[in-house]
Amino acid sequence: MPLIELQDGRSIAYEQSGDPNGVPVLFQHGTGDSRLARHPDEALTTAAGVRLITADRPGVGGSTRVAERTLLDWSADVESLTAHLGIGRFVVVGWSGGGPHALAVAHRLGDRVSGIVLASPLAPLDRPGARDLVLNKDLREIWGLRHAKWVAALAGRIESRSARKDPDAFVAELAKSAPADAPVLTDPGLEPMFAAEMDEALAQHGSGVLDDMWAFLDWGFNPEEVTQPVALFLGDADEILAPDMYRGLAERLPGAGPPREWPGGGHYALFARERWRELMEAAAAFGG
């Protein structure tokens, strides 16, 4: 597991895959996921001409936790990571809870980010009815504990311990709770990746997962301020976040066109073979 040490003594864990001479693409994993979340067939990424960088956010996997961090705090870590890797301009991809982090990176680093690709991204919760578009009850319950974070932290430790005892069973339960995602989550070629990356996500007792959730309550910027070109993908059968959340976010991003919809796709649709290829090709196009 490669690590970089930051000036404040913290570490960030990251991985690289795909074409080492390709377009640099920084993939922002979902909330409850880790740097290991990517299609396991590296040939797909390589064929798209992408040099893929995935990194654990603080409190996830091998990255040092930062209590009460913000979305923009993560952007500073990305600035350090890309400098360490000798990367000037790059494309940022964000999936689910990685979407707000991708937009924060683009907002902070400006012209260094040549384009943004979003897949099933969480939108700001600052507008009336926004939380009604969060379909997953567990997410709503966590935000309900925002004034009793110690309760959420205790519950997170218990849930993390249980999930890590049998990661395969954890993925199977997730598939049962979101039938549209079952074909992807139970795919024999993908399930081991999900089990490994979700297990890694909980290595620090779920602390980084909760830090994501608290950071989402105040982005520190507005989507309207992010001006880079955006390609947004969504599964129209998503059972975790309502597809209308993604469509509304696209309307707020100046550089976004109409979302590209995956018929019958769920929240994890991007990991299906052809959809991952489509995502990587869209990212590579922004590097041209």
Fold and architecture overview:
- The chain is an alpha/beta fold and 288 residues long.
- The protein has a single domain, classed as Rossmann fold (3-Layer(aba) Sandwich), CATH 3.40.50.1820.
- Helices cover 40% and strands 16% of the residues.
- An 8-stranded mixed sheet has the order 1-2-4-3-5-6-7-8, with helices on both faces.
- Helix 3 links the parallel strand 5 and strand 6.
- The longest helix is centred in the middle third of the chain and has 17 residues.
- The two termini are 30 Å apart.
- The model has no long low-confidence stretch (mean pLDDT 95).
Radius of gyration: 17 Å
Total domain modules: 1
The helix/strand series, from N terminus to C terminus, equals: EEEHEHEHEHHHHHHEHEH
CATH homology superfamily name: Alpha/Beta hydrolase fold, catalytic domain
CATH architecture: 3-Layer(aba) Sandwich
The total of helices stands at 11
Integer average pLDDT: 95
